[in-house]
Design a protein that fits this description.
By secondary structure, the chain is α+β, with helices and mostly antiparallel strands. Helices cover 19% and strands 15% of the residues. The protein has nine helices and twelve strands. The strands form two sheets. Strands 1-2-12-11-7-8 form a six-stranded antiparallel β-sheet. Strands 3, 4, 5, 6, 9 and 10 form a six-stranded antiparallel β-sheet that branches. InterPro entries: PPM-type-like_dom_sf, PPM-type_phosphatase-like_dom. Pfam families: PP2C_2. This is Serine/threonine protein phosphatase PrpC.
């Protein structure tokens, strides 16, 4: 069954796309000037099946090789009457020519050798719709026109020879620029992220005001869980340990000058009594009060040993003040006792070493020349020390007893009697003073054991040495809070110290 050829689509206005009649110079709908619009190229296929023929120049259309063919239904002819045939074109005429209009003549190029003819019949594909004439079956596809120059009237950007693109509309960008973010919103989000602390355990939950993770419930490290400080030639490190839920130790460091201009180094270490109320507050208050008292008394010419005694008394007053609670607080918790702590301190000048203590925190002397013997500079206020002093037990037996660390002297409102201990020494060689709590000396009790743990360059690197000593306690089990201060002797001149 044969199929009637399709009529060619009427030309349209490049501005409003309304159909135009042949010979129109202006659009009847919008009045667009059609004389300024270049002739539209033919539609071209997505896939070329036959070799395209080379287009003939317009002036060759009127040559002697063939007649001029115009009109709708002629392949390759422009709707406005521009001829497409010329010299060298193969002409096929006849009443049965595919694609020929009524009374028209069709022209077609012969297909290359071996090419299959296009399908025909009821299921044959229809020619593409557009401004050009239909392509008859068996005819080659029209050649691509050369890119034309941009036309201000049509809005064609020019150079975009892409099939399926309308040349009468400007090309649209592939992507649209997103709106820039509001800097105020970004700043607020950053501020929220900074204020919200992330859990150190699960790395996802937010830490609540009580110090616990809202996601996993893990307690977060507190500021006092691990503290380090280096003040010129002396340094201190404090750590919570591996068994306690908080750090109840505290320390204070300082440097000052005596009236003659010679330097003086001050180190205070305090250990809160765990069985007392708020031991962490007691140790912090005592360390601050003692350090402040020493740094104020030494420049005024007070003897270092007397200054140490006064500093311990000042620390005792500061701890006693913590017991001044409202009557309602005492009624709600009548079983709680007053805050309490121990204290040990050291003052180092160019020719004098002074120590003072109350409780069982200790101070050790470790000479730089390890061929000289080290020494323990303090005596504990403890049950074990009393047993040894009374001759009832030797030191090994006393400290093996479960009552060994029961202290007999401390700072606090419920202490039996305040008895500050002070002692002064004049070492004849350089070395370091190790001021520490029982969290360290439990793992290096004898002076010889402590000397083995102290690094040889402790005088030059006090912070490193303090870290090594705390690490020794943690490696040994870390059953208690660990705090240690390393003070070189003699005191270096002002401005000297570790980098």
């Amino acid at each position: 069954m044969s199929q009637m050829p399709r009529q060619a689509a009427l030309p349209t206005c490049p501005s409003c796309a309304e159909p135009l009649d042949a010979g129109d110079r202006f659009c009847g709908a919008c009045g667009y000037d059609l004389s300024a619009v270049p002739s539209r190229p033919d539609d071209h296929p997505t896939l070329t099946m036959n070799a395209p023929a080379q287009p003939a120049p317009p002036e060759a259309a009127t040559g002697p090789a063939g007649p001029t063919v115009s009109g709708a239904g002629v392949p390759g002819a422009d709707p406005n009457g521009i001829p497409a045939s010329g010299a060298g074109a193969h002409q096929v005429s006849g009443a049965g020519a595919h694609g020929a209009g009524v009374g028209g003549v069709a022209t077609a190029a012969l297909p290359p050798e071996g090419a299959l003819p296009p399908p025909s019949g009821p299921g044959a594909p229809m020619p593409p719709q557009g401004s050009g004439a239909p392509v008859p079956p068996g005819s080659p596809l029209p050649p691509r026109p050369a890119p034309s120059s941009p036309s201000p009237a049509s809005g064609d950007p020019g150079g975009a020879d892409v099939p399926g693109v309308r040349f009468d509309r400007p090309s649209e960008p592939d992507e649209y620029a997103l709106q820039a973010p509001d800097p105020r919103v970004a700043a607020e989000a950053a501020a929220v992220a900074e204020t919200n602390q992330v859990c150190v355990a699960c790395r996802a939950g937010r830490v609540d005001d009580d110090g616990y993770c809202e996601n996993c419930g893990h307690a977060q490290p507190r500021e006092r869980d691990h503290m380090e400080q280096e003040s010129g030639p002396l340094a201190a490190v404090s750590d919570r340990g591996l068994r306690h839920h908080r750090n109840e130790d505290a320390f204070g460091l300082g440097r000052t000058a005596l009236p003659d201009g010679s330097p003086a180094l001050v180190a205070i270490v305090c250990d809160g009594v765990s069985s007392a109320t708020r031991p962490d507050e007691a140790s912090l208050a005592a360390s601050k009060a003692a350090s402040k008292s020493l740094l104020a008394a030494l420049p005024q010419g007070t003897h270092p040993q007397q200054a140490m005694h006064e500093a311990i008394v000042a620390a005792s007053y500061a701890v006693n003040a913590l017991a001044d609670e409202p009557a309602t607080a005492r009624e709600q918790a009548p079983h709680q006792n007053a805050p309490a702590c121990t204290l040990v301190g050291s003052i180092v000048t160019p020719g004098l070493l002074v120590v003072g203590w109350v409780g069982d925190s200790r101070a050790y002397w470790v000479p730089a020349d390890r061929s000289s013997p080290p020494a323990r500079l303090t005596e504990d206020d403890s049950w074990a020390a009393q047993m040894v002093a009374a001759g009832l037990m030797n030191e090994a037996e006393a400290y093996a007893d479960e009552r060994a660390h029961a202290i007999t002297g401390w700072l606090g409102a419920d202490a039996y009697e305040l008895e500050p201990h002070t002692a002064s020494f004049k070492p004849d060689r350089p070395g370091v003073v190790v001021v520490c709590t029982d969290g360290l000396w439990n793992y290096a009790e004898a002076a010889e054991d402590m000397a083995e743990v102290v690094p040889p360059d402790a005088s030059a690197r006090p912070l490193h040495s303090a870290r090594v000593l705390v690490g020794h306690a943690l490696d040994g089990g870390g059953h208690d809070n660990v705090t240690v201060a390393v003070v070189p002797f003699p005191a270096p001149a002002q401005g000297a110290g570790s980098a």
